Amino acid sequence: RFEGVTMAPPDPILGVSEAFRADTNDLKLNLGVGAYRTEELQPYVLNVVKKAEKLMLERGENKEYLPIEGLAAFNKVTAELLFGADNSVIQEGRVATIQGLSGTGSLRLAAAFIHRYFPDAKALISSPTWGNHKNIFNDARVPWSEYRYYDPRTVGLDFDGMVADIKAAPDGSFVLLHGCAHNPTGIDPTPEQWEKIADVIQEKNHIPFFDVAYQGFASGSLDADAYSVRLFVRRGFELLVAQSYSKNLGLYAERIGAINVVCSSSDAGTRVKSQLKRLARPMYSNPPVHGARIVANVVGDPNLFNEWKQEMELMAGRIKNVRQRLYENLSEKDKSGKDWSFVLKQIGMFSYTGLHKAQSDHMTDKWHIYMTKDGRISLAGLSLSKCEYLADAIIDSFHN
Ligand code: PMP
């Protein structure tokens, strides 16, 4: 029966960590998965998370099931954090928010919703994008195609290509947009470009579908990183937003996030929410409570909230520092005259180096630097003291 089952290929991102663990060389560096490390390259549990957990333990909270839609206190604060508590969509009760299994589970639930209610609609995703987007839409049976995003000539945004492809898609498509810190490129549209993207999406009756995995983690400011989503809300769109607390609160393994659907009336919001619950029930019944309580405690308490913002600035700041150092090392050491300024222009935890697959393989085979094969490196896994080694490796691999 099971003899006919074939071997699945390793995951292009998580498979990198497996290969890293198997390497015994002391110089090895894991720049594959996007997980924050300290300057000593150790995993980091935020102090506010420890404090919230201590509070939770002292209160002796129970482990009863949550409702299908998750923890009410979490759903309230997560929508407020995203849209701003005074936003009219919150005031008017027009957002259907349900707790999801982190960003991935929330995207997956939204994809199931699209499949059920918009069976003829197509999703549009950026080229390139986070690899799991394709898997998610494939498994949810939502057809997708790509819009141009990255321009290898400028190592920047192919804005005209992006707009043209969004325009060419069938009316009423779901356009997946990275709210901030585009993964894998680290290249975001400017505020003016976001306006123009909103224009085309409006013109074509498309539905914006935001993936927000880095709020506060990209720039260090929660509000600045919610700029794109709030702009679209201000312009009156109905839209979807998947949220994740993996990076900004370092809650990777807690699987805590949410899916928010902004509707044009509170009635529609109530109906949409009922349907999201109906989809969630046979998939996983109800979500886990621990991470939801942590978020509710941190975001809902003014002191912990302020402390969180400081810790986030610290994390974002450390990444900016290694970005700067890496750029300097590359510019100083590379004698070919190549312009490395794109490293500084990118934001968030990644840098898209422009190294192609064979060069990325060379980085691993010769230098023991583990990264995804699309040339993406996670700066969150890099320390100041390793920048020089990495710069040597990148220059060698580019000219290899
Ligand atoms: N979307 C994007 C663009 C991401 O980079 C990530 C994390 N790598 C996610 C969603 C979801 O991650 P998680 O499921 O851990 O929240």
Automatic annotation (TrEMBL):
Its cofactor is pyridoxal 5'-phosphate. GO terms for biological process: amino acid metabolic process. It comes from the Eukaryota. Residues 28-394 form the Aminotransferase class I/classII large domain. Belongs to the class-I pyridoxal-phosphate-dependent aminotransferase family. In eukaryotes there are cytoplasmic, mitochondrial and chloroplastic isozymes. This is Aspartate aminotransferase. It comes from Musa troglodytarum.
